[in-house]
Amino acid sequence: MEMSPKEQEEIRARLMQEKRELTKRVDRIHAHAREPLEADSSEQAAQLGNVAVVSALETEAIEEIAEIDAALQRLENGRYGICIGCGEEISPQRLEARPACTECVDCAEVHDA
Ligand SMILES: [Zn+2]
């Protein structure tokens, strides 16, 4: 895919924006997770349940950040928009929906199956 410097700049800006939002989300999750547990045991159980949910959300956000970093990297070396599975170009519609995606629809489906 031939991209003009302007297009590349737009994608970079969008990826950076998403990364900032995810980073903020992780910070909020951390702030929340640091709250001390209540002494009451039933409260504690509920909070421990929350911790599990929180860490799943955090993992998800951290993975998304890693994806974005990888996309920024590929933008730098001219590999952006090329599927890491088969080397074909990822459709513009797919990149529009998920700018950090690394695989074409066909390759992504193989993983989901
Ligand atoms: Zn592919």
Helices, by number, come to 4
How would you spell out the order of helices and strands? HHHH
Structural class comes to mainly alpha
List the bound ligands.
Answer: zinc ion
Overall form: elongated
Roughly how many Å apart are the termini?
A: 28 Å
Notes on the structure:
Helix 1 runs antiparallel to helix 2. The mean pLDDT is 86. The two termini are 28 Å apart. It is built from four helices and no strands. The chain has a domain of 77 residues. The longest helix is centred in the middle third of the chain and has 36 residues. The chain is an all-alpha fold. Zinc ion (ZN) binds next to helix 4. The site of zinc ion (ZN) has 8 residues, from helix 4.
Sequence-ordered SSE layout with sheet pairings:
Blueprint: H1 5-33, H2 41-76, H3 92-97, H4 105-112
Helix pairs in contact: 1-2
The protein binds zinc ion.
Provide a compact summary of the structure:
This protein is 70% helix and 0% strand. The chain is built from four helices and no strands. Zinc ion (ZN) binds at residues 83, 85-86, 88, 103-104, 106-107.
Name some characteristics of this structure.
single chain, 113 residues, mainly alpha, 70% helix
